[in-house]
Design a protein that fits this description.
Blueprint: E1 2-3, E2 17-20, E3 25-29, E4 35-39, E5 46-55, H1 57-69, E6 77-80, E7 87-92, E8 97-101, E9 106-115
Parallel strand pairs: 1-6
Antiparallel strand pairs: 2-5, 3-4, 5-9, 6-7, 7-9, 8-9
């Protein structure tokens, strides 16, 4: 299994997000106004919004090459969450968004990972 590359910067706290990948609850409204609920499945995967700021062109190239290696969201890879240092098996939930800062020498990268 591929491993997310080590970069020269750590993810930004600003823009960081962690949540359930989907709500596992099934709700049924009854005639009396009551609502019955139950879990749709037992395992509840997570997803993370990750943002890196001030990436060098080398770091940007590393992330782009990795995205190509895992074929975007098709491949599974190991990623260690900086919040808790737990390693998860994840995939990209969509394409990586790169934004140029002031000059071509600095980039921001933003992407969403989903647990598999």
């Amino acid at each position: 299994m591929a491993v997310f590359p080590t970069l020269t910067v750590t993810p930004s706290i600003e823009g960081w997000g962690e949540e359930l990948a989907q709500d596992p609850t099934i709700r049924t409204q009854l005639d009396g106004g009551y609502i019955l609920t139950r879990a749709r499945f037992t395992r509840i995967p997570k997803k993370w919004k990750v943002k890196y700021g001030l990436l060098t062109p080398g770091d940007k190239a590393t992330i782009e090459a990795f995205e190509t290696t895992v074929q975007g969201g098709a491949g599974i890879f190991s990623w260690t969450s900086p919040a808790g240092l737990i390693t998860y098996s994840v995939r990209f939930a969509g394409p990586i968004m790169f934004t140029m800062r002031e000059s071509p020498n600095w980039w921001d990268a933003e992407f969403i990972l989903e647990q598999v």
